[in-house]
Amino acid sequence: MTINRRRFMNNAAAIAAAGFTAGMTASQKADAIEDEMARQLAKTRTLPWLCNVGEAGNGPGPFLQGTDPLLPNMPEKPTLLDFFERRWGENSQHLLQSANLALESGLDERQVLACLLHDIGNRFIRTDHGYWGAQLIEPYVDEEISWAIRYHQALRFFPDESVGYEYPEAYIGYFGEGYEPEPYIHAAYEYARNHRWYMTSRLITLNDLYSFDPNVEVTLDKFVDIIGRHFRTPEEGLGFDGSPVAHQWRTIIWPNNFL
Ligand SMILES: [Fe+2]
Ligand SMILES: [Fe+2]
User: Fold this and answer.
1) What confidence tier does 124 reach under pLDDT thresholds 50, 70, 90?
2) What is the number of the ligand closest to the CA of 94?
3) pLDDT for 1
């Protein structure tokens, strides 16, 4: 792993300095900086899904290009179901179980689809997954569905007692007590809270199963009809319809192409 050492040390020193008190000696301050550096290095860095698949070359040259031998083949005209089955596989359980909860709660089909697709951005890249996910599906679903997916990312951080949504326990473990999201997340929340589609997005967070049951396996079968009714699969297949997001779907098909 290569890191920019100077920047890393400066950052750790700045974080540690925020906790300095008036009576601290120079050596206590140095210890605090060292502790902070150890804490930062120990943090888990999640690589985007794209960085975790396929590393082998597959042709005469050294680099991977085209079909990745470590991944299932995709059909010529891939549908959403193909992406679930051949790219996201086991990683889909969180989505399937969240959608299942929505279905069992009697929510309408568009809402169930929103729950089914709410984290597909994570199957691409984790940072800003709500925004990436919304963008991926925008040309193919009702605007309200992609809007709700975009804003669930911000709403996750803010409780809403009116529907019984609390700040997720898990986040305290992930980010520490008293974590404050970035200002842009606060701004997105303020905007979404006053929007006419607020509840569609809020219901995603309510059905967002953080501690889903690893012993339950929900299959895609029960959602096939809902997808058929509310997701407009392009004739040419996802990735090949010339839409503004076609390249994103192609990136999931060939995640490690050299060029
Ligand atoms: Fe999410
Ligand atoms: Fe989720």
Assistant:
1) confident
2) 2
3) 47
| Per-residue model confidence (pLDDT) at position 251 | 92
Record the pTM.
Answer: 0.83
* CA-to-CA dists, residue 186 to 75, 125, 146, 154, 192, angstroms: 41, 21, 19, 7, 10
The string of pLDDT tens digits covering residues 204-229 is 999 998 666 777 789 999 999 999 99
Residue 116 Cα to ligand 2 midpoint, Å, equals 9
Q: In terms of Cα–Cα distance, which of 65, 63, 85, 64 is closest to 74?
A: 85
C-alpha 19 – ligand 1 centre gap (Å): 32
Q: How far is the CA of 135 from the centre of ligand 1 (A)?
A: 14
Q: Per-residue pLDDT tens for 11-27?
A: 888 888 888 988 999 88
Q: How far is the CA of 32 from the centre of ligand 1 (A)?
A: 34
State in Å: Cα 209 to ligand 2 middle.
Answer: 6
Q: Which one of the ligands is nearest to 122 CA?
A: 1
Question: What residue ranges define each of the domains in the chain, with the CATH number in brackets?
Answer: 80-253 (1.10.3210)
- Tell me, in angstroms, the distance from the centre of ligand 2 to residue 254's CA: 25
- Burial label for 254, CB within 10 Å (0-12, 13-18, 19+), is middle
Residues pairing with 165 in the sheet: 160
Q: How far is the CA of 2 from the centre of ligand 2 (A)?
A: 32
Ligand with smallest separation from the Cα of 121? 1
Task: Tell me, in angstroms, the distance from the centre of ligand 2 to residue 187's CA.
Answer: 21
